[in-house]
Amino acid sequence: WDNNIGSATWLWGLIFGAALGCLSLLVMLILGRIHPRPSDTEVASQQTIGVILWLGHLVYGLITVLVYSAF
Description:
Mean pLDDT: 85
Largest sheet: none
Helix content: over 70%
Structural class: mainly alpha
């Protein structure tokens, strides 16, 4: 936010977290394709993991905004 991209508000924190979450899901998909061992988890379990990973990044974005605003 020091580079004038967005502002330190909860909305920009969610946008930041959502973007990081999407990037991490993309990396997980790529790594899942190139991993030499087949996956033992079911599709529903993989979707649950993806949703939890994305929601975790949303929370991370909100916490980042709170800490950034405090200083």
